[in-house]
Every structure is written in C-alpha cells, then in structure tokens.
Amino acid sequence: MSVAKVVLKKGKTQLFKDGSPMVYSGAVDRIVGRPPPTTGDIVLVTDETEKPIGWGLYNSVSMFCVRLMQLEDEAAKDPSCVLNVDRLLESRISSAVELRRQLRLPSAQTNAYCLVNSEGDRLSGLIVDIFGDEAVVVSSAAWVEKYNQQIRDCISKTNHVNHITWRPSIDILKEEGLDVCCYTAGFALNAARGGALSVTGVDSSSPALEIARENVVLNNLDPRVISFQKEDATHFMKTAIANGDSWDIVILDPPKLAPSRKALQNALGAASMAGRKIKVVCQAGAGCAHPIDPSYPEGEYLLNVLLNDNSEPYFFSSRN
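The line above is the sequence of PUA domain-containing protein; the predicted structure tokens follow.
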C-alpha cells in the first residue's frame, strides 16, 4: 500500500511526538506522495527529515489536516494496528469498554455514561454516549464518517447496546442558534456555515455588528439565516426569559468584566445585580467516564461548580 507522507516543519514536531493528536495545517511543511492523499486516507506523519512520528487519517478541507492515530513507539509495541484502521478501532473501543467496566459502568445507579471520549480514548473526533441500551455516536471528524460501519460493528459488540444513533456534527448544527456578545460574529458565522437553520447574534457595539454584517457578505452566507440585534446582553436575556424564547444552542462568550484591577468595581456591580449572595461549595471536572489524555490538555473542558445561596444547593455547569 502506497502511503503519502505529511512532513512537518522544523520546530513543529515535539507537540505531536508528545502525543497531541490533531495536526494543524500551519505545522505542515509539505506532502510527499502521488497522487496526493484525499480525505479519510491513511498518511504517515514525519519530522522535517521524513523520520516517522506516527500515522493518522488525512482531511483535505479541515484546519486539522491529520488526526494522529498511532505513534511510532505505540506501533512498535502493537504492530497489528499499524496502518490498519479496522484493527485499531477494535483495539481502542475494546479498551474503552474495559475501562468503563472497571469503573463499574453501567451500574445500579446509572446507565448513562460516556463510552468513548474522543482524544481521551485515543480516537480523536469520535464520541460515544450510552443511554440505557442505546449508543449515541457524535462524529466531529471526516474519518469517523468514512469508517461509519466499522465503528458501528465495534459498538454493537458492547453488552447492553441494542440500538445505535449516529449524529454527525453537521446534523447537530442543523438547529437554531443564539450567539450572545457575538462581537464580529465568529461563532455565529461558523454556525451558519455549518448548516444551522437560523442564527441570531446579539451585541451592544454598533461598529462590531457592522463588521459582522460585512463578514456575512464576505463569507457568502445567506442573510436570511443569520441576523443581528444591537442590545445589551443582560437586557436581551431577561426579555427572552420573560417571553419564553428558546434556542437549541446558545453561545455566550462575554468580554471580561474585570480585565484589570481598575475594573473590579464594575464586575462586582454586575455580580450584585443578581441580588443573591452565594458560596462556592466545591469545584469538580468531568466524571471518571471522561478520561483525559495528558498530551492533549485541551480535552479537559468541563467544569462543575456547586454553589449555595443559603436556601438550597444547585449546580452550575460550564465549559472552559
């Protein structure tokens, strides 16, 4: 089998030698091989001297042009998976199932848990959640779509799984979105580009919204899909709650309330608007069914904060 080489730039290799799985296009110096690889093809990833770092799956249209699947030292220990996606899937999904078994999942307390956690289970772009006897597959990488059937076959061997629902990221985006504090609409534009049915961007800055509207034109997006409102975010959200408005996806990425010590009083004033005094009881990350690969710390994205306002405890969850 002829395999193309993705040769990295000098000085850009250590991150991937350490195990980070997502090779971004800016780290690539050249691609060696004819014909050039197409999306979903197996490729070798090498340093600037063409010494192999590992192998992965190529994507010709993503900013992450390769998802590394196996490093050289791993290949030496398990040669059966070298350049073999079917065997690798069997091995990685089997390991994920065994880890959850050791964690006693499912259990008498819950039958809802994460079976495959993307980079945490060394399958970047693939998430599998279990709800009773149903497995929900969330695909965020082209290779996952290409190997759809092989993934289904592996999951179907899992005890208790009788149904599989496949949810590619493009389907997830086919919903209504709200981008609060949208600024020049980076998130809103990507949602519209990804196939959202409608997107509303909200910001208090007229100049920012003017640029946002220009960006809609520059990106050849349908202005009927994406619209903008000039309004204070807090006032907008209070009105939306009062009107019973809702969206499938809400993006809230506000500017810092206190970017400096001088602005601290403004932040305290905003906090006092809630009219509630709270205590932070504890902070925690994702559950044990969401393993994290230390070489990819970006995977540690979930934060749970338990707050108490002296009446009753409640949870507030956010993504870092």
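Note on the example: The CA atoms of residues 255 and 313 lie 28 Å apart. The radius of gyration is 23 Å.
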